[in-house]
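Obj.: predict assembly geometry.
Materials: sequence records (below).
Method: joint structure prediction, all chains together.
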Amino acid sequence: MNNPVISANKLSLTYQTNDGPVHALQDINLDIKKGEFVSFIGPSGCGKTTLLRVIAELETPTNGTIQVNGMSASEARMQRAYGYVFQAAGLYPWRTIGGNIKLPLEIMGYSKEQREERVAHVLELVELSGFDKKFPWQLSGGMQQRASIARALAFDADILLMDEPFGALDEIVRDHLNEQLLKLWARTQKTIGFVTHSIPEAVFLSTKIVVMSPRPGRIANIIESTLPRDRSLDIRESQEFLDIAAEVRDGLRTGHADE
Amino acid sequence: MTWIVFALFFWITMWILNVRLANSGRNRIINLIVPALFGISLLVLWEGFVRGLNISPILLPTPSAIAIRFSTSIPILWVDFVQTFVKGALSGYVIGCSAAFLTAIAVDKSSFLKRGLLPVGNFVAALPIIGMAPILVMWFGFDWHSKSAVVVVMVFFPMLINTVAGLSAKDTIQNDLMQTYGASYWQSLFKLSLPAAMPFIFNGLKICTTLALIGAIVSEFFGSPTRGMGFRISTEVGRLSLDMVWAEITVAALAGSTFYGMMALIEKGITFWHPSQRS
Amino acid sequence: MNKLRFFWHKMGPVVTVLLVIIAIWYVATVWLNSAWAYDKAKRADTTISFSQMVSDTMIQDKPLLPAPHQIIKEIYKTTVLKKVTSKRSLIWHGWITLSATLLGFAFGTTFGILLAIGIVYSRAMDMSVMPWVITSQTIPILAVAPMIIVVLNAVGISGLLPKAIISMYLSFFPVVVGMVKGLRSPDQMQIDQMRTWSASKNSSFWKLRLPSSMPYLFASLKIGIAASLVGAIVGELPTGAVAGLGARLLAGSYYGQTIQIWSALICAAILAASLVAIIGTIEKYTLRRMGIQL
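Observations (raw structure tokens):
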């Protein structure tokens, strides 16, 4: 029960390019326990997206190990252990919203009744009920991204991996979606890995913040958040919040200074 | 003389009308009227000049003469149409495009084939394939089978190139999603690659409609039984009955644009989601 | 070492595919020509072994499918070994076809560009003519070739010009469509910027629209020249096949001279490939000088 859900041990990933080797990840050691909300934050090139992709077996490490749910990343992927949300919604334009959500369910072999039931359930979770017959281009950017999250929640995966999902949206929509995401997390009890550029977003959402620095991509600091699990947007003005944010900012600064 | 004057007057009037209409804005009705008026004024110009300058009918018949010849020759025109279009062009089109489609799927699966076959395919697509017509007539005989074979060769490579381009048109995020679902190759092919490839596939199908008709008609110039649009055109040209030639050309033009139009209509239904269909 | 691996990675599959094609060709040669070989032996009241049959299929006079080496020999015979001015020289025939192609292509491209400019700058022309240009692409224009040749011959225009007119017609449409697309390709921001500089229509054309249309122009030029070549070849068919590659094709098919047909075809193919390659090189050079990366 206390075994980490995601465990990286001396994880490294080096690309060979024309200008020499690029160390995207170097010696990453990290444990993520069940039910945690972990944010990865850092400047461009620090490897946060790469790390997320390694967990999802979208990239292969050149050294070290990665374990998901106690098995290799490859086995975990075939067992459909996680849902992935990208920076862009990536909805298939020839399918309705309902059709898009049914896509992973069709591939994984859920029955017709199960598919209908789950579509209705997740659309209600992201407050998009009634939009299942619409096409992606008929929805705004924020709504498309919500649909993308719904799609990742549709099947039974304990882990949710999100790569800067709200990056392309304006601040007002972003705040609203941040709140919704926390509510979702409380309801579904999933383990969430979340990559972001934004310090307030990272501090607001997470139980643990992993600060990374570039060249080579490595972990500069891991900060355990002392904020209560149940939080609202006003917490962003509290002293506790600002202290943690300052800690994150320091970690980022020292990471940069190492260059 | 009066004919020429009338024709020129009609032309200029229509042109002024068109300019007025064009500048008044674009809606669906005006978009249809303007080119239609242009086409009609061209026909009137044609009729007027041929009559006014007394051009011999063995050089250039009037549109009215062609229309008369057309309406009195429908049985022959129909036989030619069936021979060339239905038996030759259509069969070759179906065989050629299906073969290209299946080959494209095989090419997409193997990166080796992609690197080897595509440059060769691009090269062959630019060649004067119609030159193979005499060879294919020699192998398959005079009847429609050789014409069908020419069409198969003509449509294969453009269709192959377009389909291969289409199969790699899916974007990275959509592809990565398939990976995260642990989808098999075939699941990914049917649920992602093929739907995403449809705009390209239809682009190829539309181009090939024209190629098929041209291939069927021109290969008849190299040898044909006593029927077929190409056959009729070359023999009637020899007899200097140009009105019959123009009647056959009209049939060919109608067949070509209808075939293309049908493909475009099907395309609209299947690729409704693509930005080019929505604007 | 890296350069060698890169070269092999790019060219290796192509070379393999080509070798496989040649191998299949030889097998097909044996297969298709074997019937004739066995027939010949039967008529001479002898029997031939398999290997004798195979060697026979490679040297037949009027084979159903000539072997690659036979075609190469014939091309060599009619190009290198013949005087360029001889009526049997493939180079002479090739030049006849090529001259019609180039003339037609030059006219077609010029008129095409002019019409495209007219369509882009005049609303009335755009709405009247453009739909017809697009529709004409669906009409099998090549079918009209015999008529054009005969009609022009009747008014005394024969030889090079009628074929050039067919070529012109075929290269005209791709150039119009491509050029219109290209002249309209600058995005609204760039057009607005020209406005803020009070640029005249002339300036805007030469400095913005024309340069932006170059990639589109070259793409249609490649299609246009291939189409012009086909037009010239088909234009040679109706006049009873006297001169040119199309004429050689037709003559070969009348007299059953299959090797002659294939060598004319390969010659036409080489011509087409070279013309497209030349335009491709001009394109690369021009676009690089303009700073456009392909």
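Conclusions so far: Chain C has two domains: 2-65, 90-290.
To do: check interface contacts against the pulldown list.
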